[in-house]
Amino acid sequence: MICKPGFIRNPWTKQRGDSIKAAAVIREFSRAAHRGCGLYYEIYHHRLTCELRALLEGLNSDDRQTLTAEAARQGIQLDDASAYESAQEYHNILKEIREVQC
User: Fold this and answer.
1) Is 52 helix (H, G, I), strand (E, B) or coil?
2) Contact at 8 Å (CB) between 14 and 24?
3) DSSP 8-state class, residue 13
4) What is the 3-state secondary structure (H, E, C) of 57-94?
5) Helix axes 80-101, 41-57, angle to 10 degrees
6) How far apart (Å, rounded) are the C-alpha atoms in residues 99 and 5?
7) C-alpha dihedral sign at 26, 29, 4, 1
8) In angstroms, what is the C-alpha Rg of the chain?
9) Residue 24: Cβ within 10 Å count
10) H or E stretch at 43
């Protein structure tokens, strides 16, 4: 299946040929990541990064490239090093929150 530029396979449907703008997918994942993060950027960013990286695994090469490029355009890096850094920041902020609550 060949999608229009900026579009990827729709991750929420099994309908063959169904596509969606990569920016719309990122926007929806961003909304979901924001819920319950307590306005901590580190928590939000980690959730968003994890969801997008999980989605990448189920996409074909062209769709992975499209989603990665759109994420990068929005300032979201999905490479291994960035994901590791995001996880470290996430764990550090959780540690700080626990320390303040004790």
Assistant:
1) helix
2) no
3) -
4) HCCCHHHHHHHHHHHHHCCCCCCHHHHHHHHHHHHHHH
5) 140
6) 47
7) positive
8) 15
9) 14
10) helix 41-57
Query: pLDDT tens digits for 22-53?
Result: 999 999 999 999 998 888 999 999 999 999 99
Residue 64 burial by Cβ neighbours in a 10 Å radius (0-12, 13-18, 19+): middle
Mean pLDDT of the chain: 93
**Residue 14 neighbours by CB distance under 10 Å:** 7
Please tell me the distance from the alpha carbon of residue 81 to that of residue 60, in angstroms, as a whole number.
Answer: 22
Phi/psi at 20 (nearest 5 deg)?
-150, 150
The residue behind tokens 């990286």 is 53
Torsion of CA 7, 24, 86, 53, to 10 degrees: -40
pTM: 0.90
Q: Is residue 81's pLDDT more than 70?
A: yes
What is the three-class DSSP state of 36? Answer: coil
| Structure tokens belonging to residue 100 | 């303040």
How far, in Å, CA of 79 to CA of 68, rounded? 9
